[in-house]
TrEMBL record:
This is Selenocysteine lyase/cysteine desulfurase. The keyword Membrane does not apply. One of its GO terms (molecular function) is lyase activity. Keywords: Lyase. Gene3D superfamilies: Aspartate Aminotransferase, domain 1, Type I PLP-dependent aspartate aminotransferase-like (Major domain). The lineage of its organism: Bacteria, Bacillati, Actinomycetota, Actinomycetes, Pseudonocardiales. Residues 49-283 form the Aminotransferase class V domain.
Amino acid sequence: MRTAFGEQFDVPAGYLNTASIGVPPVFAAEAMTDVIGRWRRGQDNAPDFDPMVATARESWAALVGVNPERVAMGATVAEMIALIAAGVPDGTRVVTVRGEFTSATFPFAAQAYRGVTVTEVDADDLTDRAPEFDLVTVSAVQSADGAIADLDGLRAAGTPVLLDVTQALGWLAVDVSWAEWVVGGSYKWLMSPRGVAWLAISPDAPDWIRPHNANWFAGQDPWTSIYGLPLRLADNARAFDTSPVWFSVTGAAATLPWLVKLDRRAVQEHNVGLANDLLARLGLPPRDTAIVSLNAPGAGEHLKAAGIRCAVRAGRIRLAFHLYNTAEDVDAVTAALATHRVE
């Protein structure tokens, strides 16, 4: 058991895979245990989860810095992005960085039949090239290697931006509220169960999003929108909701309000400090991100044998440091890689 930022985490030493799956604080895991217990005893009713949806939505909105009325709820990032992709005008020119996570690009690439194009450029060229296009879709932090986007440059470029904060929100202390659309999953750095994703829609965003997933929960009053026409959707971003994944929302409603209260600058300094310490010990320059990407051929088995949980992305070892990690984890990785050439 580890204690971090005032809460306990039942996470083992060497867990450096938050960029794949975040580990919840004990109180959030207990909330999940409780709801499963109520389920098996038949003690819940569907409306019982509505307050949890509201709490989770309000908390994610606070982390992004927007009004909750601007936030729609879904289950996955790609699902939320697809609402925008399906609504962009024919012939829309989309730009992204080379090697972007495909949930941010495939929904647009799937619109090729009506002339929508997606162009990949080098990350260093994105801000300069952005004015040539109608839309930028990019992650605030890259999944493969933790590279942080030039958010100030994108904001100044003037092209509408769809920003995926899945690998950023929860550790990176940065303003993202300016983007036309901000999307993110909750199961990594936000340490909630998989099955909850969010989309913040700016009042200044182009009118490209359509409620293709229109359903009862997106109604102005969901519990009177269950049967019959006419269409009667909410008059805010809830019009793009899908009905909640109840157990996932339970976990999000537990964890997200706690994250809102944390000093995000302190979280960032903790995470980045550990990542930079590891790089320094390996003789590599600091990168000032919580994700470390290493080229270390053959090192995977040594890391596994040492109890290090990590991932391989784009052919490189990916290690992710979050608030429950400590110098003990840095020591373990350094020892496991002692006989390997790392770059």
